[in-house]
Amino acid sequence: MPLLTEPCPPAYAPFISDEAVCDTGSLAVHVILRTKGFPSLEGLAELFEGRGSWSMFKKGNEYYLVINPSLPDGPECIAQFDPRSGEAAVYCGKADMVEAGGREMLRNPFTYPLDQLLLMYVLAHKEGALLHASAVDFGGRGYLFPGRSGAGKSTISRYLAAKGHEVLSDDRVAVRNMKTGFSIFGTPWSGEARIAANANLPLHGIFFVGHGSENRIEEIPPGEAARRLMPVTSIPWFDREAVTAILLFCEDLVLNVPAYDLHFIPGAEVVSFFEEFIS
Fold it and tell me: What is the pTM of this model?
């Protein structure tokens, strides 16, 4: 019987291609789906056990991400990948297979945590990182607005979008060192504003957002910026090699891109205030 796959959520569509993408800044991850058998985990070093939701193993340069390892019929899936090459094989188990209309259907395995963990690792080995942030285009210049949940990322993104500024993402942004400078990239993982665009821009400034009693911007030194980045950066603290790569990236980022505190009163006035500041 032919194997059918569930469609990806609409936000993913612009980020998926049957061919490797080679335009400026693109980072292609080649994924192969397999539905027969699992790779053996015998003798592999366990890096992380996530209370039954997922586990991570490693052998040489190969990682093995096991999703829902404690299911009675075996894991939901196992992703075997080498972040240096951007190649991944996803082995799907019985938990991912369903019957629909007399046919076997494969549930879409590319959901949290598999998709974000894969990208986090690939970025770590390509001088990049995944941040909790929104990202906005101001006349071809990119600005990053990191913040924890509730800090105001989606709120300020809605105000900016309403004034005609393109928002790449309102919750998760990929950042990379492109040798000619740092660039920001939209991702399919949106926040409350449901904004996700497959676009990239050169990064010109980092603004840590937070609600305040007035609209105010203050520059902060690199050391403070690095401290602020840690809680909003996706870092696999259980993996020394990946941690080292991401921390070095964050150091380069704050040493080369100016960082600020942006306190704002909820309201459209913050857009004019920000426009005046960066002009």
Answer: 0.90
